[in-house]
Amino acid sequence: MAGSRSSVRTWNFMASHQERLVVCLLFYLRLTLVHSQRGSYVLDDQKGLGRQFDGIGGLSGGGATSRLLVNYPEPYRGQILDYLFKPNFGASLDILKVEIGGDAQTTDGTEPSHKHTEEDENYFRGYEWWLMKEAKKRNPKIKLIGLPWAFPGWVGRGKNWPYTFPDVTAYYVVSWIIGAKQYHDLDIDYIGIWNERSFDIKYIKVLRQTLDKVGLTSVGIIAADGDWSISKTMLFDPYFNDAVQIIGVHYPGTYTVEDAIKTNKTLWSSEDYSTFNDNVGGGCWARILNQNYVNGLMTSTISWNLVASYYEDLPFGRDGLMTAQEPWSGNYVVESPIWITAHTTQFTEPGWFYLQTVGHLQSGGSYVALTDGLGNLTVIIETMTRNHSVCIRPPLPAYNVSAQTATFSLKGSFTNLTELQVWHSRFDFKTNNPVFFEQLTPIKLSEGTFTINLQEDEVYTLTTLQTGLKGNHSKPPDSQPFPKKYMDDFKVRNPQFSEAPYFADQTGVFEYFINTSDPGDHVFTLRQVLIQRPVTWVADADQTISVIGDYKWQNITVSSDVYMEAVNKGGVFIAGRVTKGGGEVRNAKGVFFWVFPNGTYKVSNDIQGHIVLAVGKSGTRAGIWHTLSLQIKGYEASGFLNGYPLWKNLRILGPKNGWAAIGTEKFEKAQFDNFYLGAD
C-alpha cells in the first residue's frame, strides 16, 4: 500500500511537471507567434506619386439632415460648426456637399426649392445657403458641391422625370449656381446630376454646354452619384467623357471597377458612411477613409450625413459625423467620426498626393501616406477589426486583424526625416474606455526607419506637421426632451430662415408668410405653398405634412388656427401620434383631424384618410379662420372647432405614440397660426 501511494505521488509530480512544460511551451510559442507578427513597409516617392488627394467631406441634405441645426441658440450653434469646419480644431472638413432643394421628400424631410414655380425665384429659402457661408467663414478653402435629389413639378412639365426637357432642367440647376454667387457670394465648385437615379447622356452634355455658355467653365460635373455603370458609357463616348470631370459613386465598399480606372478620371466616393455614429460607426469611417484609396483609388470620401440634426426617430437617426438634434436644450454630442476625420484632414490638404506605396498591413488593417511634394509626409494607419467597423452598406466580408509590429522605411525625399509627430485613437471595445485623437510623444527615426506596435481597433497619424489640435469648447447643456408645452404665433417680420423652428416638413413646404390681406390677428402665419406635386425622389405622400415634437409622446393636445385658401377642394388637418416620416411618410398612421371647405370634417387613423374613424358636418369653409384642437388621451380622442366640441371621446386603438403634425389634403395653399402643443 505504501509503495502504491509513493507511485501515485511520483506520477502526480511527473504529470504536474509535464503540464508545466506544455504550458511553458505553449506560452513560448505564443510569444514567438506574436513576435513574428511583424511587417516591413517602404514609403517611397522615388518612382513618382499616386493620385492627388481631394479631401474629406460631409453632406447636408438628402434630405433635411441639418433641419434642427439652424434652430440652435448661440454659442452652441457656432460651436457645432467649429467642430465640423474650423481648420485644425475638429473634423476640419475639406468639402461641403449640399442638396439643391427640390420641394420633395429626400430621406428625412423636404428642402425648399429656390424656384417653386418657373416664374418664382427666391435664393433665401432653406438653410443650405447659410450653412455654406458658415463653412466658408471658417475655412475659405472649402470646396462646395450642389446635387439635386428632387425637382419642382414644373421642371418635369407634368411628368415625374427631369430629363424629358434637358434644357429646362439645366436652366433650373444653373440658376441655383448663379444665385449662390449673386446673392451669397458663394462659388460652387462642382455640380451633380440626380442623386442615385438614372443618368441621361443628353442631359449631362446639355448641362455642360449651359455651364460653359454662361461662363461657369470652372464648375465641374460629378456623375452619376450612383454606381460605377457610367464609366463604361464614358469609354465609348468621348464627348460624354469630356463633359464629366469626376466619377462619383455611392457606398462602393472601398472597391472600384476596371472601366472607371480606364477613363483616367478622378474617382470619388461621393456619398459614403450612412452609419449610426457610435464607435462601430467611427470604426466604419476609419476603415473606409483609408481603404477607399488603398482598394479603390478614390481620392475623396464624403459622409452622409454631415451632422445628425433631425428627429432621431426619422429614418437613419444619428447617421452623421456628430449629433445635434436638441436645439431646445442646446445639447450636442461630438461623436468619434469627428476625431477619426481629423486624423486625415488636420495633417493633409487637398492638392497633396498619395504615395504609390500604400497598402494593407500584414496582420490586417491598412496604411496610406501622403505628401505635399515639399518634404512633408503624413501616414495614417488603421487596424479596425471586422465586427467593429461594419458600415450600413454594402455587406462587409469576413477578415482578420491581430496585434502586430510594423516597421516603415522611408526612402526618396523622406530619407533624412528624423522625427514624426504622433496622434492616436483607440476604440477599446473591451473596456469601453476609448481615447480619440490623443497626441503622443514624437517618434524618432533611425536611418529613415521607425517601428510601431499596433493593437486591434486603433488609428495612428504620423506626420511632419505640427499643426494638429484637438479643439474643445465648454461642455454643452445637458440633454432634455422636447418641451412639454410649446407655442408659436409665427410673428417674425424678417426671419433668418424660411421655416419655423422645430417643424420638419415631410411632404410639401411650410414657410413663414406675411398675410397682407388680413388686417387682424393673422398677418404673420405659416403657409403651405406647393400647389403641384414635385418630381419626386421617393414615394412622397399625396398630402402635405410637417411634424413636430417628441415621438414618444402619447397623451397630447394639438391646436392651431387654420385657413383654407382653396375653394371647393382640399382641406387641412392637425394630427397627433404620427408614426412615420421620411420615405415612409405616405404610410403614416396617427389620429388625423381634418376639416374641409365644403363644411365637413373627418377623423382618420392614417394620413391617406382611408381608415375613417368619424365623419360629420363642421360648417367650415375657405377664406375664413377656424381654430382646430385635438386632444388624445389613452384610447380616446376628442376634437374641437372654434372652442366647441365637434366630436368627443372617440375610441382609438392606436398608434400608442408619435409626433404632432399639421398639413393639407392635397398640394394646396393653406395657412396655420397660433400653434400650440402640449403633453401630459
Automatic annotation (TrEMBL):
<dbReference type="GO" id="GO:0005764">
    <property type="term" value="C:lysosome"/>
</dbReference>
<dbReference type="GO" id="GO:0004336">
    <property type="term" value="F:galactosylceramidase activity"/>
</dbReference>
<comment type="similarity">
    <text>Belongs to the glycosyl hydrolase 59 family.</text>
</comment>
<keyword id="KW-0732">Signal</keyword>
<dbReference type="InterPro" id="IPR049161">
    <property type="entry name" value="GH59_cat"/>
</dbReference>
<feature type="domain" description="Glycosyl hydrolase family 59 central">
    <location>
        <begin position="354"/>
        <end position="468"/>
    </location>
</feature>
<dbReference type="InterPro" id="IPR013785">
    <property type="entry name" value="Aldolase_TIM"/>
</dbReference>
<keyword id="KW-0378">Hydrolase</keyword>
<dbReference type="Pfam" id="PF17387">
    <property type="entry name" value="Glyco_hydro_59M"/>
</dbReference>
<comment type="function">
    <text>Hydrolyzes the galactose ester bonds of glycolipids such as galactosylceramide and galactosylsphingosine.</text>
</comment>
<keyword id="KW-0325">Glycoprotein</keyword>
<keyword id="KW-0326">Glycosidase</keyword>
<feature type="active site" description="Nucleophile">
    <location>
        <position position="271"/>
    </location>
</feature>
<feature type="domain" description="Glycosyl hydrolase family 59 catalytic">
    <location>
        <begin position="53"/>
        <end position="346"/>
    </location>
</feature>
<dbReference type="InterPro" id="IPR017853">
    <property type="entry name" value="GH"/>
</dbReference>
<keyword id="KW-0442">Lipid degradation</keyword>
<protein>
    <recommendedName>
        <fullName>Galactocerebrosidase</fullName>
        <ecNumber>3.2.1.46</ecNumber>
    </recommendedName>
</protein>
<dbReference type="InterPro" id="IPR049162">
    <property type="entry name" value="GH59_C"/>
</dbReference>
<dbReference type="GO" id="GO:0006683">
    <property type="term" value="P:galactosylceramide catabolic process"/>
</dbReference>
<dbReference type="Pfam" id="PF21708">
    <property type="entry name" value="Glyco_hydro_59_C"/>
</dbReference>
<dbReference type="GO" id="GO:0016020">
    <property type="term" value="C:membrane"/>
</dbReference>
<keyword id="KW-0443">Lipid metabolism</keyword>
<feature type="active site" description="Proton donor/acceptor">
    <location>
        <position position="196"/>
    </location>
</feature>
<keyword id="KW-0458">Lysosome</keyword>
<keyword id="KW-1015">Disulfide bond</keyword>
<feature type="domain" description="Glycosyl hydrolase family 59 C-terminal lectin">
    <location>
        <begin position="505"/>
        <end position="677"/>
    </location>
</feature>
<dbReference type="InterPro" id="IPR035394">
    <property type="entry name" value="Glyco_hydro_59_dom"/>
</dbReference>
<keyword id="KW-0746">Sphingolipid metabolism</keyword>
<dbReference type="InterPro" id="IPR001286">
    <property type="entry name" value="Glyco_hydro_59"/>
</dbReference>
<dbReference type="Pfam" id="PF02057">
    <property type="entry name" value="Glyco_hydro_59"/>
</dbReference>
